[in-house]
Specification:
It contains 15 helices and nine strands. The chain is of the alpha+beta class. It has three domains: 2-57, no CATH class; 80-305, Hypothetical protein af1432, CATH 1.10.3210.10; 313-376. The strands form two sheets. Strands 8-7-6-5-9 form a five-stranded antiparallel β-sheet. A four-stranded antiparallel β-sheet has the order 1-4-2-3, with no helix packed on it. It is elongated and about 85 Å long. The protein starts with a strand and ends in a 5-residue tail after the last helix.
Length: 381
């Protein structure tokens, strides 16, 4: 065991393993605070150092100590049927995009079926579908993956805005196909890990026009769907493209997709950078200051997804680890959390852990969001 000088001990300090006065006599159990009277007792006994196999409980120490325990609960939240529906939708959307890339005729009914499945699943199980957007580790980045994720995120916002079923279907269709014009952009431009040249930028910025043409002229969707896709790179401040529209000249559906698309791009890995965790992506959106996004739509997005989005892994101040299962609209920093690993290191599987509503349990709060990939790799953020 390691020797810890008594001079560095402070009241309230906790260790990840028991602390002993000597080889046999216990001072405090693991994760129990050292009290002032414990320190006075050591001073009275002239003890200069204590013994432990643990380290001081800090956020980093908790993560290292519980990494093995949390690894097997990473995929909790999301039934097998919904997971299969999600992955099938991604694969089918990728196939549609691939057919369009080589100018083959695509049956519009196939896309309609994808939209209907995603709409129904997101309406029935919003938490599960959002969890797939944030954590599906088995899907390779692709246009289809981004399209399905953007559709799910857009639908969550549309539902919060109480759009009717017809508008939700229009929104989901436009979100699924908003980037279909990217099939006309050369792959070397899309994957380029450097600044684009003026000519490459021009080609990239043409993709909303291509999306409109494919949606309306090739696939035969109504003008409304094509116009929403055409506008998804317009900005609230009027500095977007292709038509430099501003504020409410941009359709509400396009404003929703703009936010959803930006968030999705942040949380999924791209060829040129690593993904952000959902909490960091949300904070990035909040720093927009009405430049790119409609602030009212952004507020609804936060209300729908949460500062700590559904499915996010979080470390609590008492050393436990949980998954966010409910957003408290009136207290976005204090969601409801289901425990995955409690403060004593006990692991819960199959959603057996206790639920803590942080809006009511005010003694517990979120210390930090956790990157699930970093935990699985035994790395600290």
């Amino acid at each position: 065991m390691k020797r810890i000088p008594v001079t560095i001990l402070k009241p309230g300090m906790k260790f990840t393993k028991p602390v002993y006065v000597d080889e046999t006599n216990l001072l405090v159990p693991e994760r129990v605070e050292i009290r002032d009277k414990d320190l006075k007792r050591l001073e009275k006994w002239n003890i200069e150092a204590v013994l432990t196999d643990g380290v001081v409980v800090t956020q980093e120490a908790v993560l290292k100590d519980t990494a093995d325990k949390i690894e097997t609960v990473m995929d909790q939240g999301g039934g097998a049927a919904k997971k299969q529906l999600y992955r099938t939708s991604v694969a089918q959307t990728d196939r549609v995009f691939s057919e369009l890339r080589i100018n083959r005729v695509v049956d519009k009914r196939e896309t309609d079926r994808i939209v209907e499945r995603v709409l129904r699943a997101t309406t029935e199980s919003p938490e599960e579908m959002l969890a797939f957007v944030l954590r599906d580790e088995k899907s390779e980045p692709s246009l289809g993956l981004s399209a399905v994720n953007t559709a799910i995120l857009s639908l969550l916002v549309g539902a919060t805005l109480k759009l009717d079923q017809l508008r939700l279907k229009t929104l989901a269709t436009a979100a699924l196909l908003h980037d279909v014009g990217m099939v006309k952009v050369p792959d070397d431009i899309i994957s380029k890990n450097a600044n684009l040249t003026p000519d490459e930028t021009k080609k990239m910025r043409a993709h909303p026009l291509y999306s409109y043409q494919i949606i309306c002229k090739v696939m035969g969707y109504p003008e409304e769907v094509g116009m929403i896709a055409l506008q998804h790179h317009e900005r609230w401040d009027g500095k977007g493209y292709p038509r430099t529209l501003s504020e409410k000249k941009i359709s509400i559906e396009a404003r929703i997709i703009t936010v959803a698309d930006a968030f999705e791009a942040m949380v999924k890995e791209k060829p040129y950078r690593n993904s952000m965790i959902a909490y960091a992506a949300m904070r990035q959106l909040l720093n927009d200051n009405s430049r790119r996004f409609d602030s009212e739509v952004l507020k609804v997005f936060i209300k729908s997804i949460g500062i700590y989005p559904l499915g996010s892994f979080v470390l609590l101040n008492n050393g436990s680890i949980g998954r966010v299962i409910k957003v408290n609209e009136n207290a976005p920093l204090r969601p409801a959390v289901r425990l995955l690993v409690d403060r004593n290191g006990k692991k819960y599987e199959n959603d057996e852990g206790a639920i803590l509503d942080l809006a009511k349990d005010t003694d517990v709060f979120i210390a930090r969001a956790i990157d699930p990939k970093a935990i699985a790799a035994k790395k600290i953020m």
